[in-house]
Design a protein that fits this description.
Layout lengths: L2 H7 L2 H4 L6 H28 L4 H18 L7 E2 L5 H32 L11 H24 L10 H10 L6 H20 L5 H16 L6 H5 L16 H33 L5 H14 L9 E2 L1 H9 L6 H16 L9 H15 L4 H6 L3 H16 L2 H22 L8 H6 L14 E5 L13 H4 L8 E5 L8 H16 L3 E5 L3 H9 L3 H4 L4 E2 L2 H13 L14
Parallel strand pairs: 3-4, 4-5, 5-6
Antiparallel strand pairs: 1-2
Amino acid sequence: MDPALEERWLPKSILSLRGYTSQKFLRDLVAGITVGLVALPLAMAFSIASGLSPQAGIYCAVVTGFLISLLGGSRTQIGGPTGAFVVVVAGIVAAHGVEGLFLCTVMAGVLLVIMGATGMGTAVKFIPRPIVIGFTNGIAVLIASTQLKDFFGLQIDKVPGVFWLRMESIGQHFKTLSYEATTLAVLTLVILILCRMISNRIPGPIIVLVAGTAAVYFLKLPVETIGTRFGGIPSGLPHFEIPRFHAELIHGLLGPAVTVAMLGAIESLMSAVVADRMSNDRHNPNVELMAQGVANIVSPMFGGLPATGAIARTATNIRAGAQTPVAGIIHAVTLLCVLLFAAPLASYIPLAVLAGILLMVAYNMGEWREIPGLLRLTKTDISIWLVTFALTVFADLTVAVEAGMILAALLFIGRVANTTTVAQVTDDYVEDGRAHILQDKDIPYYATIFRIHGPFLFGATDKIAAVTENLHQLPPVVVLRLRNMTAIDATGLFALEELAKLLHATKRTLILCGAREQPRQLIHQAEFEELIGKENFCDNVQEALQRAEEVFESLPPAAKAVPVGVS
């Protein structure tokens, strides 16, 4: 097969076999077992929060975790049930039952396969950053609200599915609070936070799961457990059964299926991007989407939930030393072994501990640190974020996804329209432009210049990869010429921030020059100058080259060596 075709369509598991060694296998083995144990409480917690039995989450993690690693386009991505699906799955189960959920999951899987096969893996980039943040903020709030009952051990027969009714019910029943359950849940959060503060390598969920279960078993704490609510988890392999086809449900499930597919695509590709940054790899988005689609088609056949790439488990996998998709396959086998040999022990797992773990997940996935930066941007970006957040919390995810896509289209049209200008060419205009032209400038060996031409909006930001694709060959100073960048939005600004952080991590300096009025104003509002330094924000390329010389002269002698490939 042509090497280019192999890279384009073959899963990373096959490509990784080239040069695979016993040392890589040992590292994959350790990482796979570690992330498998971390995934156990999360899989059960997501399933319970979705209104299903805990074993449904484990079945999903086993089946989809194996298939996504085997067929996917990322070396280190871990697939399985995630918080993004909790609210939408609970809504589907409430409206259409478990069989409706299985049919919806299959439909979403088919859509994901089609998206990947037709090359639409890069289409997810057309969702602006404020909409993605609005989704994740809203989903995090909803997940947290669904866990308050078990966190405080409240006696509520049926928790309402609507957010404000749920909060009202929790307030009315708060007098039934269980001090034992609350103490257990609070200690769970404290331990998880301490583990995070000490080291990201410490598997906090495993520690709290074992400690909480041991406390309930030995101290005979009167709290609700998996055994008291669900009767435990059955041992053995998941039962294979093709879901029954209900034609009358298809029309009502089209919207939720699109929502599941879009959330799955967004979550998996965001997770793959995080994995790329952590492991210095580049994922194949189309192969990854096809793998996600196949996994979601197969998952219901074993009684599983919808699945996607899991950012936290993927990060854990990489930190544990994963080298290839073999680690993800071992993670699935680890969960299967737990299911076969340790299922009876799960009966003692307290639901308060799982609620504490999910509250921590909700906080981590919320991207709350993005909000202050977002509030410094334009009123348009802020309003889009608020609308998406409000619709996610107070309406439902299907409406939020649909409204988000419409807002994205209108935003794109408006931003592109604003880039069109008509102006007279005067002597002053010609004279002002002399400092910006490149033709008469000498670019020294210690600097390189990249330019952005046209509006740098969502949908175009992946092109910034041209700067970093040969990162090790870049000289000490990178100049980004913005003279012909007519507009920028929150997503474009985020891409520039990521570029600046990456270059800074490799001891390189980023200089921006020649920004026009709209980009300059937004960059100033976002306080981007503080990230790269005000002195590295120049009016024109002539000033930028002078600043590059100052930066180079201030470097230690070892850093002034000419990089390989630079002449």
